[in-house]
Amino acid sequence: MEDISVLICDDSALMRNLISRIIDGTEGMKVVGKAMNGQFLIEKIPLLNPDVIVLDIEMPVMNGIEFLKYRREHNIDIPVIILSSIAERGAAVTMQCLELGASDFITKPNGSVSADINSVADRLTELISSYGGQYARRKGRTVQSSDFFSHLANERAMTRKLQSAMGTDAANKFLASERERREKPRFEAAPAAQKGPATINPLREPGRIEAIAIGISTGGPNALREVFKNIDPNLKQPIFVVQHMPAGFTKEFANSLDKICPLSVKEAEEGDAVEEGHIYIAPGNFHILVGTGNFGRKTVHLSQEPQRNGHRPSADVLFESMAKVYQNKCLGVIMTGMGKDGAAELAEMRKQGAWTLGQDEKSAIVYGMPKAAFELGAVQRQVSLEQMASEISKLAKEHA
């Protein structure tokens, strides 16, 4: 099994070392090189042939924007993950990077003792395993699966919880004993026969489609750009979107989608009247729900209730709302993303009689969320990313 190879580009020696420690401390990936600006990065790419690049934006000589323009002009297909600040200007520049072909982004940690290092580490390794892993496999290399890295992330989270509750030494001893117990030889039962997806018997037949809900995570920024630039300009139904993204970025993300989408795209606000042909992006750190106001008028509701499946916004919260408000008169779509967010409540939508779609494994950056939903029987049909816009548009038009 080969490691996913990572090339880091940042003008800060502290940041290069911090990111390197995170990557080299994760089984299945390694840093193969570092560069202090885009010019050095260009020189190192053909020598190191990385699977993924972690790129700072503001650097001397050649900054991140200039490198991405060079990358596009020279048809370099190595995926790029942006390191971004949380500042408002940083959000706008980050969206420009996505428009220039960057795959995704993370917010920069503040230093080696920052309180958010753990969350940055989890997010960074998730993105590296997703984009770098897909690129390596496309090049014919054998690397660990997204499920492997998801398991590692879960173990890290459990370790942190135990260390907080028991103390570092006691937690480490307990975890070591658990690893030893798991590694002892034992008789293995014969593998169970592989089962197909569960069966859901809807309570009612699918009706006309009055609204559409999309849940998406890792791989989502560019996937949504692909869907919304090709969506039917005459589509009448409102679309609600949960894209896992930190606060401070979703407004700029909605604005960037609005530039390429024939429909109106905006970051959702509390009390927004739901209008046909409008797309509402859940704000970072807020769940999005649909409520019914005066005279039956649908309105947007935002909530800061606890995270669901480790996320706020959560696709499960949106899908749960759709199942209650629209029942069989809506379309639920689950797309690329690590984990299981959205799967259970997409199954509930299907149970209520809603139409449902899931992204297929081949086109998903991470076939986690759509796989979980498919196995629950929540997905009527799996669709490639290339066909998702036309399939959504077709269903919306046929069942308007």
TrEMBL record:
Entry's free-text remark on domains: Contains a C-terminal catalytic domain, and an N-terminal region which modulates catalytic activity.
EC annotation from Swiss-Prot or TrEMBL: 3.1.1.61, 3.5.1.44
Reactions performed catalytically: [protein]-L-glutamate 5-O-methyl ester + H2O = L-glutamyl-[protein] + methanol + H(+); L-glutaminyl-[protein] + H2O = L-glutamyl-[protein] + NH4(+)
GO BP term (any one): chemotaxis
Organism of provenance: Treponema saccharophilum DSM 2985
Main location: cytoplasm
PROSITE patterns, per database record: CHEB (PS50122), RESPONSE_REGULATORY (PS50110)
Domain Response regulatory, residue spans: 5-123
Alphabetically ordered keywords of this record: Chemotaxis, Cytoplasm, Hydrolase, Phosphoprotein
CDD domains: CheB_Rec, REC_CheB-like
NCBIfam families for this protein: PRK00742.1
Subcellular location: Cytoplasm
Name of the protein described by the UniProt record: Protein-glutamate methylesterase/protein-glutamine glutaminase
Annotated family: Belongs to the CheB family.
Lineage: Bacteria, Pseudomonadati, Spirochaetota, Spirochaetia, Spirochaetales
Enzyme class: hydrolase
Presence of keyword Zinc: no
